[in-house]
Design goal:
The structure is a single chain. By secondary structure, the protein is an alpha+beta fold. It has 3 helices and 18 strands. The strands form 5 sheets. A 5-stranded antiparallel sheet has the order 2-8-16-12-10. Strands 3-4-5-18-9 form a 5-stranded antiparallel sheet, with no helix packed on it. A 3-stranded antiparallel sheet has the order 7-6-17, with no helix packed on it. The longest helix is centred in the N-terminal third of the chain and has 21 residues. The relative contact order is 0.22. The N terminus is likely disordered.
Length: 314
């Protein structure tokens, strides 16, 4: 028994040392991240249970295989928020799916492009890059320091509603989760989340410090209640909003399959890391975000809805 207690204490001490090392202060130029942006995943409270399913729930899921390491392209554009402006995002994005996405993309150009998705889906999925803060790389224009780390795994899937069937989303619908300016102008109705492999029952909105042998996991759960008319909106949020905690869509909106992107990273044990941000957002995890443009055919969209509504895992 004493040997077990000693072993546990040693493990806790090692992880505490790593947490302190990872959160050892801001970058030298004050651009972040800060100590308070990191958390030891083993200290995060267990997550609450998901919404209770009803008899009319859509319990299926549809997984798309859209690539991973070696299939990602990058730029500092954001065609949804800053169209026709090169480097308008002021930080670098990873893209999978549509091969052509940049600031000057149009619906027609996206529909004509190639894709990394095995099923031919030309939709585009993108998020800020993650960097290891080891001094080996830097975005010289916008100051996001560190070596870019590609995700070891990219999981893209659509899931249903716990209370009802879902309807097809329209072609060229834009959607976003999180807000790139959340630190200084908070407004996002939902934030991306983080965890570690082996600890997925503990969810945080901070950068998790994972035990040795555990991978960093980044989760984007997109809003899933569409207003039924708009492909976008002036603020890029109000046309597609999250369901309530119970899974119900507010009046005047319709349930669509929820896009869930899960990224898994091999962050070296003890390494400090952060995602790219606008300079004034200080590499905060609170400004993490992801964007999506639906470029599915009607047939592809119908397959997803049929799968999700019938309770199958496709």
């Amino acid at each position: 028994m004493l040997a077990v207690v000693i072993a546990v204490l040693v493990c806790v001490s090692v992880l505490t040392f790593v947490v302190n090392r990872v959160a050892s202060g801001n970058q030298a130029d004050g651009s972040g991240p800060s100590n308070r942006d990191y958390v030891d995943i083993t200290t995060v409270a267990l997550s609450h249970s998901a919404a209770t399913r009803t008899a009319g729930a859509s319990t299926g899921s549809y997984t798309e295989h859209c690539g991973g390491p070696g299939t990602i392209h990058r730029n500092a554009d954001n065609v949804i928020f800053t169209p026709r402006i090169s480097d308008g995002a002021m930080h670098v994005h990873d893209y999978v799916g549509n091969l052509s996405t940049n600031a000057f993309s149009t619906d027609d150009s996206l529909a004509a492009a190639g894709t990394t998705c095995a099923n031919g889906d030309r939709s585009t999925f993108y998020w800020p890059v993650l960097r290891i803060l080891d001094g080996q790389g830097q975005d010289m224009v916008f100051g996001n320091m560190g070596r870019i780390l590609e995700p070891a795994k990219v999981d893209i899937r659509f899931v249903g509603s716990p209370v009802t069937h879902v309807v097809e989303m329209p072609e060229f619908l834009r959607a976003t989760v999180g807000d790139a300016k959340e630190l200084t102008e908070p407004r996002a109705p939902s934030l991306p989340r983080w965890t570690c492999t082996g600890y997925t029952d503990r969810i945080t909105d901070l950068y998790p410090v994972c035990p040795q042998g555990s991978q960093v996991v980044r989760i984007f759960e997109f809003p899933n209640c569409w207003n039924g008319t708009s492909l976008s909106s002036a603020d890029h949020y109000t046309h597609v909003v999250p369901a309530t905690v119970g899974g119900v869509c507010q009046q005047g909106t319709f349930p669509i399959a929820q896009l869930r992107i899960t990224l898994t990273y091999d962050v070296p044990f003890g390494a400090r890391y952060a995602n790219d941000t606008f300079p004034d957002q200080l590499r905060s995890p609170l400004v993490d975000h992801a964007d999506y443009i639906d470029v599915m055919t009607d047939e592809e969209q119908a397959q997803i809805v049929a799968c999700v509504n019938s309770g199958r895992n496709c």
